[in-house]
Write a structure and sequence with these properties.
262 residues; alpha/beta; Rossmann fold; 7-stranded parallel sheet; 3-stranded antiparallel sheet; 9 helices; globular; binds 2-amino-2-deoxy-6-O-phosphono-alpha-D-glucopyranose
């Protein structure tokens, strides 16, 4: 587990973008797990910029999104299909057939979820999974109480998530879809590397519990303590509930100095 604390979210996006850029250069057919929410927008912006200015080629990259709401059309302004097109897919050269996002309907969801898992597996598995985190510690839409062995499935959003996401639905909590299809925690844990980004003081409790708290289903992201290669990229505000800030900073400085110079 690596904890990288930076002053602001822009610096987090820069580090995350470099990790992904280097990985694509080393493996052009990289399998990327993607997240939505406001946190990764800066990262997508930088990747688009790298594509446009530095010829970062996404033509063989395969992507799997973590989740999608059930019950709003794909072209709804708040669907994750729309989000991904707007912030990323419309600006890079990832072939449509390589872009996987969960469906937005209930019909045949069991079959769909199984096929989603099969597609991840047959693509060789996710190399890098980008993650945000909810105030309640969720990753994807795996809310507190989700099994660490859970797989892609339909799930119900917690009250905390409905409240947090209401801002995207004109502050109308009743307009927020109550269900989603999400990769499971078991699915996420099979990614070879996870990059979890968090910024702002609203995330400080979730981050403290995730990184330093006991591992348990009530803090879904705490499962990542058992992941062999997770990088937590957090800004000062999101880090402010951690007790070992000084250690994480020294460890990162030493890494840059002695282990993996940038
Ligand atoms: C949503 C998404 C999560 C995301 C979280 C945090 O509920 N399903 O994948 O990480 O919100 O969003 P934000 O980055 O906007 O705080």
């Amino acid at each position: 587990m690596e904890v990288i604390i930076q002053q602001n979210s822009q610096q987090l996006s820069v580090i995350a973008a470099k990790i992904i850029r280097d990985a694509i250069r080393a493996k052009p057919d990289l399998v990327l797990g993607l997240a939505t929410g406001s946190t990764p927008i800066g990262l997508y912006k930088l990747l688009v910029q790298m594509h446009q200015e530095k010829d970062l080629d996404f033509s063989r990259v395969v992507t799997f999104n973590l989740d999608e709401y059930i019950g709003i059309p794909q072209d709804h302004p708040q669907s994750y299909h729309t989000f991904m097109a707007k912030h990323f897919f419309d600006h890079v050269n990832i072939p449509k057939k390589n872009q996987f996002i969960p469906q937005n309907i209930v019909d045949n969801h069991v079959v769909f979820c199984q096929e989603y898992e099969d597609s991840i597996r047959s693509s060789g598995g996710i190399d890098i999974q980008v993650l945000g985190i909810g105030k309640d510690g969720h990753i994807g839409f795996n809310e507190p109480g989700s099994s660490f062995a859970s797989r892609t499935r339909m799930a119900t959003l917690s009250k905390s998530t409905l409240e947090a996401n209401a801002v995207h639905f004109k502050d109308d909590i009743n307009a927020v879809p109550e269900m989603a299809i999400t990769m499971g925690i078991g699915t996420i844990m099979e990614a070879k590397q996870c990059l979890l980004l968090a910024s702002g003081s609203a995330k400080k409790d979730a981050i403290a519990k995730t990184i330093e708290g006991p591992i348990g289903a009530m803090v879904p992201a705490s499962a990542l303590q058992m992941h062999p290669k997770t990088v937590f990229l957090i800004d000062e505000a999101a880090a402010s509930g951690l007790s070992e800030i000084d250690y994480y900073k020294r460890a990162y400085n030493n890494k840059i100095k002695y282990i993996q110079p940038e």
